[in-house]
Structures are given as C-alpha cells and as structure tokens.
Amino acid sequence: MKRVLTLAVLALALSLPLWLSSLYVLHILIMTGIFIIAAMSLNLLLGYTGQLSLGHVAFFGIGAYTSSLVSLGFEVHLLPDWPLGLAPKPVWFGMLTGVLLAAGCGWVIGRISFKVRGAYFVIVSVSFAEVVRLIALNWLELTQGPMALNNIPVLRLGVPDGFEFAFLRKPANYYLVLTVAIVAYLLIRRLVNSRAGRAMVALRENEALAASVGIDVTRYLVLATFVSAGIAGAAGALYAHYVRIVDPEVFSFIYTVTMVIMVVTGGKGTLLGPIVGGLLFGLLPEILRACGIPPEIQWVSYGVLMILVVSFLPAGIVPALAAWWQLRGDAAGAPALAASSRPPPP
Amino acid sequence: MSQPSAIELSLDRLTIRFGGLTAVDGLSFQVRQGEIASLIGPNGAGKTSAFNAITGYIAPAAGSVSWRGRRLDGLKPHQIAALGVVRTFQKTSVFAGLSVLDNVLIGLHLRSKQQPLAILLGSGRVAAEEAALAAEALGILHFIGLAARAGQLASSLPYGDLRLLEVAIALAAKPKLLLLDEPVCGLNPVETAGFMQLIDRIRGLGMTILLVEHDMKMVMGVSDRIVCLNEGRVIAEGAPADIQKHPEVVRAYLGRPRT
C-alpha cells in the first residue's frame, strides 16, 4: 500500500511537466520545491534535534550568494592595493561551493552554540542571519548591496567541447529541483534512521539521559547543523540560478518563517511533514488567486487555515494522518494490545 | 561480603558545594568489583550529589573520583559512560515521545559503530548493523520483561514499567558499574520484590552495582555493603546487619533518644 502510494506520487511528480501546459503553474511548483528543500533541512534541526533555528534563511542566502559569486567571478580589495579576485567558474562548481560554504557555516554555528539550547540557540541563529544580511547589504564591492547580483548564469552540464545542456527552460529546472529534493530527502532519511538520527532525537527528548548512555550530544548537534545548512545552501543555489538575480532580500526573516510554517503544519520530526506542509502552504496562495478570491481574503484564509491546523492538529498533518490510518487498521481487526510479559511477582 | 576483589570505584575526600552550601563534605568510600553497595542516608545527605559527581553531571569542588585507576572527575558524562560507568536518574527519566524499543536502541549508542559518512552514503554495513541492534534491543527488553511493550510509546507505560525501562536503557549501554538512583521509589511492595530479583539477575551478568535507595527492605535485602551518609559525611559503613544496629545510623534516621 505504502509502496503503491509512493510510486503514484513519484509518477505524478515526474510526469507533471509533460501534461501541465501552464508555465506559470510550473514556476510556482519550482519555487515551492526550492522552499520545500529548505524546509526539509530545517526539519532536521527543528524536528529531530528539537533546536529552533530562526536564522535558517542565512544558510539559504549563503548558498545563493556564494554560488552566484563563484559563477560570476568577483574582485575585492581587502587591502587598498591588494586585489583578491576570482575568475568566473562553471555553475556546477559554484553550486558545490555554495553547499560547502553553507555547511561550513552550519558547522561553525553548531560549534559556537555547543552549550546553548532552546531560546539561546534561537538568538544565536537569528543574530547570525542578521549579520550575514548586513554583510550582503553593505559589502558593495562583493555583493553589489541593494543593487543585487544580476545576470547570474544558469546551470550548464555537459562534456567539454561537446554536448551541453543548459537548465534555461522551466521544465528542465523543475526536474533539477525535483532531483535535488529527492536526494535531500534520501540523505535526511538515511540520517534519521541511523545511530546519528537516534542521537539527535535523544537530544530533543532528554539531553541528560542521552549523555548518560554515552551520546556526545554536541557532536550530533554539530552534525545536524552541518548537514542541514548544506541542504539549505543547495536550495539557495538552486534559487539563485533559477531566478538569476540575488539581492539581500533573500535573507528576509519572512523566508525563515515560511520554512517554519511548512515544517510545523506538516509535522515536525516526520520525513514527509515538510513536503506536505510545503505543498499546502506554498501552493495555497496561488490556488486561492486562481479561484478569483480577492487578495485580502487570500491572506486571511491563509492565516485562518494555519491557525486551524496548529490548534486542531498540534503535531502536524502527517502525524495526524498516520494516527488516523493506524486507528483504522486497528478497528479492522488487529489484535488488542498484547498482555505484559513481565515475570509474575513472587 | 568479604571477597577479596579489587577496588573499582574510589572516592577520595570528595567535596561538592552549591554556593555556600556544602552538600558533600570530604566523602571517601570504595566500591569493589562485583559487589552491590548501597548509599543511604536521610534526605539531603548528599547521595544524589555524589552520584552526579561520579557521573560527571556536576564538578566537585575538591577531591577525586577514580574508576579502575582512571580519574573520572573532569570528564564529561558521555565520556564516563563510554568507560562503563552508567547511571539512572532519581526522577523518572526516559525518552517519553519514542517507542520502548527506540528507547533501548538509543541506549545501544555506544555499541554501534556507524560513522556519519557511511550513513549518508547508505552503506550496506549500516543496514546490517541496524538489524543486529534491533535484535539486541529486543533481547534486553526480554531480560527486563518489557518485550511485549516494545512497540508502545514510552509515555503510555504505567509507572512501574517506566522504572524498568530506565534500567533497560542503562543496561543497553553495557555498564561495568551501574549506578541506580532510587530505582524503586514509588513502586508498590510487589513491584519492589520483583525489582530485587532483577538486581540479582543483573549482578549475574557480572556488573558492579551502586545503589541509592530509601526502601530499607530492599537495601538490606540486596546489598553486600552499605555506606550511610549524613550531612555530606560518611557516618557508618559495613554489612547490612551492622548498619541496622549502628548507633549513628539510628540517630541520623530517628533522632537522639531522650534521656
């Protein structure tokens, strides 16, 4: 049953550009997909280690800026007559650099916040995002500041002096985003279903107890921020080479909030949660618009739906569906709870 | 018992202060290999503080803790656990949002070898190890008597089973020295009797046990040796029969007889 459902969803996702004629809808799907990737990465931190990274957009933006700058090339003067420059590099190399730099920043944040949890982790992450935004805004020589980085090249893959494919059109970009999303999903799934994932969940559930059985909690928090930031950086790189213009707005707090909404409504700490939440809240405004509902009502309904989800399904949509599914299975004649096997007392 | 076994755990003039309060004052005692030692004393005597210092949760103000010749003070809790010194907590402490089986799987952390890179690359060895770990976790649940509840959420367990689950998690970490902090607190007499049998079976696995407990029937029943604390100091030490009659112990628990 589960396998059939998975195959059906995959088939739908893969065949979509073949029968969907509207490029506008495809564009919405690409943007939603990029944010779902970022939300999946946030879920690794928020859902599994239990640490709320309210500056998660920083990693997204670092991925976007790094990838753009490496593929555009740049020259800065750290000292008056000592220029430091980089000639334009292929886009795939830029994207890889973006992912690695974002992951590296995640590693640093994880290390710095080795002792801060809860509210303090939130403050560290928010401050980090703000610092990065200010750098992007004010280091004109590197980032062009509010003038934005323009004419960012698209991804081209191929063999040298031969066949080359450019991810210029929307269907190509759709498949690119879908591929990255599937890879990110598989990476996160492997991680959470392993010793490392259990250590992260142990940190969320009971840190003192986790340490008592030998879990080096800090090490796994750093691993989680590293992987999470890397995936967010990949989402940022995809964004940069699809939209092809990057300004300091990519560090806006609202993007982090969007990711948090996707994760929390879908179901934090579940693999499918960010995908379901992301599809719902990423596509909802567009669906409402298509239905001809006036803008003010669109956003009101968005808010109302969000409040309804969090107040009636506090664990999120996916856990609620899973519980309902299980209840249905039990009612259909599953054996009652097995009796305790504890040895009889003397 | 007078087995001439080696000293494993040794506390030397351990002192713990919280601000101006001295919770543990120059505490020295030893635990020998394979024995069941108990730490008793009135509330506030410093038993749990001593536990916390041994397992690295608080730093002692002075003195030292050594385990098989290695200093434990200064190490972090997870490093101490890796050496084989594993504790349970006074307040019931499990991973409440997870299944009973997952609780024990987390306890098995030290026994699995997966590295992050192998995990991300989806190495076949990781999958094989996961299967082996699940089998091992079920084995531990059988030993404890919770196998039938493996799939249940820990938060849905009755109190008695929660206390057993705590021990199962600690056992999964394969301790050489197991420190139990008031494990039968809140259990009824029948459950306590069952727990005493469990302690006997755990000893059969070759573990040394250090117990903090208020239930005197249990302490007298399972201990080889008892160390009695009052106001952060050892006031008596010896076999259960001696401790019961020791005038200092009687005074600490019942007060000074009126003359």
Global outline of chain A: globular
The interface involving the most residues is between: A-B, 35 and 49 residues
Strand order of the largest sheet of chain B: 6-7-8-3-9-10
Counted beta strands of chain B: 10
Strand order of the largest sheet of chain A: 1-2
Secondary structure tally, helices of chain A = 14
Radius of gyration of chain A, rounded? Answer: 22 Å
**What profile does the largest beta sheet of chain A have?**
2 strands, antiparallel
Query: Would you tell me the overall average pLDDT of chain B?
Result: 88
CATH class (first level) name of the largest domain in chain B? Alpha Beta
Work out the strand percent of chain B: 15-25%
Total beta strand runs of chain A: 4
Any chance you could write out the topology, listing elements then pairs?
The complex is a heterodimer of chains A (346) and B (259).
Chain A (H helix, E strand, L loop, with lengths): L1 H18 L3 H27 L7 H16 L1 E6 L2 E5 L4 H22 L6 H20 L1 H4 L12 E3 L5 E3 L3 H23 L2 H11 L1 H6 L4 H27 L9 H14 L6 H18 L4 H18 L4 H15 L15
Antiparallel strand pairs in A: 1-2, 3-4
Helix pairs in contact in A: 2-7, 2-10, 2-11, 2-12, 3-4, 3-5, 3-10, 4-10, 7-10, 8-10, 11-12, 12-13
Chain B lengths: L6 E12 L2 E12 L3 E5 L6 H8 L7 E6 L2 E2 L5 H6 L2 E3 L12 H8 L8 H6 L2 H21 L14 H14 L4 E5 L7 H16 L3 E5 L3 H7 L2 E6 L2 E6 L1 H6 L1 H8 L5
